[in-house]
Specification:
CATH topology of the largest domain: Beta-Lactamase
Order of helices and strands: HHHHHEEHHHEEEHHEEEEEEEEHHHEEEH
Structural class: alpha+beta
CATH class of the largest domain: Alpha Beta
Largest sheet: 5 strands, antiparallel
CATH architecture of the largest domain: 2-Layer Sandwich
Strand content: 15-25%
Number of strands: 16
Mean pLDDT: 86
CATH superfamily of the largest domain: GAF domain
Low-confidence stretches: 1-12, 429-442
Number of domains: 3
């Protein structure tokens, strides 16, 4: 192992590893950069992989999709429609630069680059159909950005596996422009170590924000015929009404106080009323051309009977609310999933003051917690939570789907309460995670 490579960040080595990486970055990039949060993410990644005893010489071995499975994943429209815009946004890179697009499970679905760049990528194993999750190939920008859910630059020896040290990579999440909590995949740029520069990550992050916005604009243009019909039709209704396309993208609405961009349908709702917290009250949908027409069906609401929180995956977390005859699933942000997990983990509940310590390490006020619950009630349902202490309502059946190994729980999280749960499961002090003042949230 090269001497300059950071040690796995266990116990007191954490601070030393962070300082070493910060200094190495300053030396490599030629000027001081705001790299603290990236370095924290990389050292946490090294800690996770060292605990798993991943081989720093070879990783876990490269895994590949079958040709059939690769083509099946490529046919998913949300990510596929971004590829032409990605090519256009990043086509002017150096000859050794390879661009890869990964799905939320870490599989490389597309790669772009010159003949020279693709030859380098072949030698690295960065090929279409390969798995570049962190637990397969060690710390790398794409795999670790999937876990951290933020942009990441990984330079040379910051990679966990020695074979990757001659390279540098930068990656950023690709989010659905209609729903910023929905992760579509990862945009990654890999080049030789000598070609990395201070603006590499900025370039990738800008492209990752721009490309989904362009895709949304193109989708909105396709909705023009439906919107023209809506303008002629919806004014005839004397009640609030919403028209969406088949995927829930809002085309037009009338008499709706709060405008929304995306209204996903609950399951099993055709021809029957259902509760929809975002719009308030009960609604019914019916087919309308190539979309759905939403109309109110009364102001009352049915109580939820069961909630299911799924935190088994490293890169996607969901809350499903079940009511009579219907269920609704929500993708969760990092902060939402931390809070909801702690409520499910502690059925007796947590006060706002306790949650300030559990999640923020005391670095905010109770008003932040109250504001967060106000937003969750509007989105998920006002009947889900009691206050002070905050907890799920007593009548709810709460199902928590968690990892078999709690040391793998929400690996992005540096919330003190989550760190303690992981540390207790691992049987060690989780000194790898910084204090709240160092958290550098992405």
């Amino acid at each position: 192992m090269p001497a300059e490579r950071p040690e796995p960040a266990v116990g007191p080595n954490f601070g030393r590893a962070v300082k070493r990486l910060l200094q190495a970055r300053e030396n490599t990039l030629g000027r001081r950069r705001s790299d603290h949060k990236e370095v924290l993410a990389i050292v946490r990644s090294h800690h996770r992989l060292a605990r798993k005893q991943l081989d720093p010489a070879r990783g876990a071995g490269m895994r590949h999709l079958s040709v059939e499975e690769l083509e099946k994943r490529r046919r998913e429209p949300d990510l596929a429609e971004l590829v032409p815009a990605i090519r256009q946004a990043l086509e002017d890179g150096d000859d050794s630069q390879v661009i890869t697009v990964h799905d939320p499970a870490g599989w490389v679905l597309w790669r772009l680059g010159s003949v020279t760049a693709l030859g380098i990528a072949d030698a690295l194993g960065l090929v279409e159909g390969a798995c570049w999750r962190e637990d397969a190939v060690g710390t790398n920008a794409a795999g670790t950005a999937l876990i951290e859910r933020c942009g990441l630059l990984c330079i040379a020896n910051e990679h966990y596996v020695a074979a990757h040290h001659p390279f540098s990579c930068a990656a950023a999440p690709l989010y659905d422009a209609w729903d910023q909590r929905r992760l579509l995949g990862i945009l990654n740029v890999t080049t030789l170590k000598k070609n990395v520069h201070a603006n590499t990550l900025t370039m990738v992050e800008l492209a990752a924000r721009l490309v989904p916005s362009q895709a949304r604009k193109a989708h909105e243009d396709k909705l023009t015929p439906l919107r023209e019909v809506a303008l002629l039709t919806l004014h005839r209704f004397g009640t609030p009404v919403v028209l969406t396309d088949g995927c829930g993208h809002v085309v037009e609405s009338r008499r709706i106080a709060r405008k929304h961009q995306l209204l996903p349908l609950p399951t099993q709702v055709r021809d029957q009323p259902f509760d929809y917290p975002l719009l308030g009250g009960r609604w019914v949908v019916e087919p309308f051309m190539a979309g759905w027409l939403w109309r109110p069906a009364g102001a009352g609401s049915l109580p939820a009977t069961r909630v299911e929180l799924d935190v088994r995956e490293h890169t996607r977390w969901s809350l499903t609310v079940h009511k009579a005859g219907t269920s609704m699933s929500y993708d969760l942000s990092k902060r939402y999933v931390e809070i909801l997990f702690l409520l499910a983990w502690s059925p007796a509940g947590r006060t706002s003051a306790e949650l300030v310590q559990d999640v923020y390490g005391g670095a905010t006020t109770t008003e932040t917690v109250r504001s967060l619950f106000s937003r969750m009630r509007k989105e998920f349902g006002r009947e889900l939570f009691h206050s002070e202490p905050y907890r799920f309502r007593d009548h709810l059946d709460v199902m928590l789907n968690k990892p078999d190994d709690l040391a793998e729980l929400l690996p992005f999280s540096t919330a003190p309460a989550i760190r303690r749960i992981r540390a207790d499961s691992a049987g060690l002090m989780d000194a790898c995670a910084p204090s709240t003042t160092e958290r550098g949230e992405c």
